[in-house]
Write a structure and sequence with these properties.
- The structure is a single chain.
- By secondary structure, the chain is mainly α.
- It folds into two domains: 260 residues, no CATH class; 197 residues, no CATH class.
- Helix content is 74%, strand content 2%.
- It has 20 helices and two strands.
- A two-stranded antiparallel sheet has the order 1-2.
């Protein structure tokens, strides 16, 4: 009997998933704006600078211990599958797995595929990787349920808990009882549960206690990395902080947004313990996002690169491996480099230029050139953003356009703000693009290619962030009527708002073209 090919997910379902993710992200940004609208941006910046170096160092150390605790998830899961592996062989693969999955949407699902690629040499199969991921979800949930239940039972007062004070202890008792029941079931030797067609295998009591201990250590250390940052600005009891952290972490797991970006921060701010100023909490959250998410992700990338080079060196195929990697990964690297450059041009167009640099430019350039450069700089950034996805699809036309636009963007950056740091960064990105020219042989029109869900979310999220940056910086500026066409050297609010609107229009026009493109609807992604 001939095997039937797997059914492809309808395009409308994928588009709906992207739309839901963007709506949730937009709602989170709106919630953040509602919380912060009474606080000037200067207070947030001042709070960032107020965090002492020892607080940052302690947070990094706590985060490192937290990632070490994450290795316990794989240790327990491997023992459950009766595949014991030495701890020293698990530290790096486990760290890389969690560093990547923590920054991905639906992290508990993403971890399975990453883990299989890294542990494949140890003999695990795709089925093993899926079983480990499912077992880790249970381990992850045990500590979350127990700690949240304890927090509610002890009557901790923070945003949401105050609102449900009469029900908090009842809910806490139910959560703690769930963990007690689980531990009781494994204590009495139950190893299998069946619910209709669902068959669940349970661990031994010893493994169950290791599950619980690993999960509790993970939650305490991951929350501790944020707590030590916040405590240097606003001393507060750890139990009250932990209740808010747990609710925010659980909320971010329910939405398909990479790393819970925006969702986690919004929930923490909305449910913050009483007496904690919002600017200080946001400053700690921003630094926590860098320490617990971005730094481990960068380190995981370095470790993957070192592992790859060692394998190539052992086989004596470094040149061949490099050529092969550039062929496979080059378009994606160039695509995201281009997206980053476009995003920088867009966001920098909304940020005020230093008055000193602006005055110097005004002495040597006509006002019209400065205004036009600012406007066209954001337009160039928007075009780079929408062409970046075409680079991943190896479209030669997209590459030729991007190669020209980079030079144009660097020139406009110097003319509009004399920002040498941004110009140098764009020049580095331009160099990466130029070196990868051979990776774009296909003469494919960019509009003929279907866009992946990740690109849809990234472009939409950037549009939301650009608009929010303009709102934060120029909330109190007059933006109605003729002021949109007021041109003056130090009229930065009007200049930035025009540039922001131009970038948004370019992206929205691109979205409309994609929607009404018959070619895009007729081809699989």
């Amino acid at each position: 009997m001939a095997a039937h090919p797997p059914k492809q997910q309808p395009l409308w379902r994928a588009d709906l998933a992207s739309a839901i993710s963007l709506l949730l992200f937009g709602a989170a940004i709106y919630a953040l704006d509602r919380v912060l609208r009474d606080y000037p941006l200067d207070q947030i910046v001042a709070a960032l600078y107020a965090i002492p170096p020892y607080g940052i160092a302690l947070s990094i150390l706590t985060a490192a211990l937290g990632y070490l605790a994450l290795v316990g998830y794989d240790c327990v899961a491997f023992r459950f599958l009766q595949r014991p592996t030495k701890l020293r062989k698990m530290i790096i693969p486990s760290f890389i797995t969690f560093a990547i999955s923590n920054n991905a949407p639906a992290s508990v699902v993403t971890a399975g595929g990453v883990r299989y690629r890294l542990y494949r040499a140890a003999g695990i199969t795709p089925a093993d990787a899926a079983a480990i991921a499912a077992f880790n979800v249970l381990t992850y949930t045990l500590g979350l349920i127990l700690l949240t239940g304890i927090a509610l039972l002890t009557g901790i007062e923070s945003g949401l808990v105050r609102g449900i004070a009469s029900y908090g202890r009842v809910l806490g008792a139910i959560l703690v009882a769930c963990v007690v029941v689980y531990m009781g079931v494994v204590h009495f030797g139950v190893r299998h549960l069946e619910f209709g067609r669902i068959h669940i295998r349970l661990p031994t009591e010893q493994l169950a206690w290791k599950q619980l201990g690993t999960s509790i250590a993970d939650w305490l250390l991951s929350s501790g990395a944020l707590y030590v940052l916040l405590h240097t600005l606003t001393p507060l009891p750890f139990p009250a902080f932990l209740a808010t952290f747990l609710i925010a972490a659980f909320s971010s797991l329910l939405v398909p947004v990479p790393g819970g970006l925006g969702i986690f921060e919004a929930v923490v701010l909305l449910l913050r313990p009483s007496g904690v100023p919002a600017p200080r909490l946001l400053a700690a959250l921003l630094l926590y996002r860098v320490i617990y998410y971005l730094l481990p992700l960068l380190l995981a990338g370095v470790l993957l690169g070192v592992s790859w080079l060692r394998g190539a060196r052992a086989e004596g195929q470094i040149p061949d491996r490099i050529v092969d990697a550039m062929t496979k990964l080059g378009p994606r690297l160039v695509a995201w480099t281009t997206f980053l450059a476009g995003a920088l041009l867009l966001i920098s167009g909304a940020i005020p230029t230093s008055d000193r640099r602006l005055a110097w430019l005004g002495d040597i350039l006509p006002l019209g050139i400065i205004e036009a450069s600012h406007f066209l700089g954001s337009v160039t950034g928007a075009v780079l953003v929408v062409l970046a996805w075409g680079l991943e699809r190896r479209a030669r036309l997209a590459y030729e356009l991007v190669r020209i636009l980079f030079g144009f963007g660097i020139l406009l950056t110097l003319l509009r703000s004399l920002d040498l740091r941004l110009a140098c960064l764009l020049a580095v990105c331009w160099g990466i693009v130029l070196m990868a020219g051979r990776a774009f042989p296909q003469h494919v029109a960019p509009l003929a290619e279907t866009m992946g869900q990740g690109w849809k979310f990234a472009i939409g999220a950037l549009l939301v962030l650009e608009a929010w940056a303009a709102v934060l910086l120029y909330r109190h500026a007059e933006i109605g009527g003729i002021v949109w066409w007021r041109f003056a050297l130090f009229s930065q609010a009007h200049r930035a708002l025009r540039a922001t609107l131009a970038g948004a229009i370019i992206i929205l026009l691109f979205v409309l073209v994609r929607i009404f493109s018959k070619q895009a609807r007729g081809r699989p992604g």
